[in-house]
Amino acid sequence: MTNNTEISTPLAGIIDSLDIAIWELDLNYRILNYNRKAREIYGEGVVGDFCYHAAADRNNVCPDCPALKVLNGEKSGRSQHLRITADGKTIAIDHTASPLKNEAGTVTGVVVSIVDITHIKEIEQKLKEHQSELENKVEERTRELRENEIKFRRLYEESELQKELYHSILHSSSDAIVVYEMTGLVQYVNPAFSEMFGWDLDELKDQRIPFLPESEREESMKHIMTLIHDGVPCHAFRTKRLTKSGQQLNISLSASRYSDHKGEPAGMLVTLRDISERVQAEQELLKARKLESVGVLAGGIAHDFNNILGAILGNISLALTITDEKDKIHEILTASEKASL
């Protein structure tokens, strides 16, 4: 490079076409030469001025000046700064410095390359903002997940407690209880069912219970279909069911349909109460009432008969006073008195 205001080496055209600002400094930081891009950034007429004054409007060398590093013996220097261009724009620059040496190897100056990295800095800033936004979202999401984890753990513990509670209720019920899936396959029977009917859960799991007498099938299926399709519960339906040994029990049956977590029908819960003794007592009571009714009827008939006999006896007594056939009348009187007893 020469000491003219423009670069005049054979590479001047190439250097001027670069989109990198280049200027040449002497050992005192004075600007000796600069290319087209440098003129765009710093304006015309800076040759002879100090680089720190022309670039940063300072009165002394910038502390991290790359030229300073080179003149202090380093092989090269680099730093980044914000600068105000000749037309008033603020830009970010990345500038590097390399020593200029004569044939003896003595450093005679510095060449500085200046790259406008404003766009890169803007991208970096946007990336930082996005990163910060992403970090905030991640932090927020992590917090939500942590809160949800706590919530779901609590719900799980509550559901497990509820499940244990329901299981305890079903297990301790004195009524036989069967839980079916919607197709009618057994999922659970309680101990009272096993005691009442003779089958345990291992025998019935995912099976149908063979305890419906043919005589009860039609009426029972009406209630079951209404429950399955319409969800209408069945309350205290009187029917009969068979035990494993073939004994027929009189049963009061109640049933309801339950849903899953989505609200879809999931199965049926059926309660069966053995009312055989109650039915027998009712039948005996009915017999007693029939006998009582017969007694009342007989009493009424006897009362009416006695009234008729009373009239007969009265007429016989009268007949004794007016007839000579007293022996025959006495026989009639004797028979009538016996009938009235």
Q: Could you give a quick summary of the protein structure above?
A:
This protein is α+β, with helices and mostly antiparallel strands. It has helices spanning 12-17, 36-42, 51-56, 66-71, 118-172, 191-197, 201-204, 214-230, 276-320, 326-340, and strands at 21-25, 31-34, 77-84, 90-101, 107-116, 176-181, 186-189, 234-242, 248-259, 265-274.
Give a topology summary.
Blueprint: H1 12-17, E1 21-25, E2 31-34, H2 36-42, H3 51-56, H4 66-71, E3 77-84, E4 90-101, E5 107-116, H5 118-172, E6 176-181, E7 186-189, H6 191-197, H7 201-204, H8 214-230, E8 234-242, E9 248-259, E10 265-274, H9 276-320, H10 326-340
Antiparallel strand pairs: 1-2, 1-5, 3-4, 4-5, 6-7, 6-10, 8-9, 9-10
Helix pairs in contact: 9-10
Structure, explained:
With 341 residues, the chain is α+β, with helices and mostly antiparallel strands. 49% of the residues lie in helices and 23% in strands. It has ten helices and ten strands. The chain has helices at 12-17, 36-42, 51-56, 66-71, 118-172, 191-197, 201-204, 214-230, 276-320, 326-340, and strands at 21-25, 31-34, 77-84, 90-101, 107-116, 176-181, 186-189, 234-242, 248-259, 265-274. Strands 2-1-5-4-3 form a five-stranded antiparallel β-sheet. A five-stranded antiparallel β-sheet has the order 7-6-10-9-8, sandwiched between helices. Strand 1 (21-25) and strand 2 form a beta hairpin. Helix 9 (276-320) runs antiparallel to helix 10. The protein is rod-shaped, with a radius of gyration of 58 Å. It starts with 11 loop residues before the first helix and ends with a helix. The model is unreliable at 1-8 (pLDDT under 50).
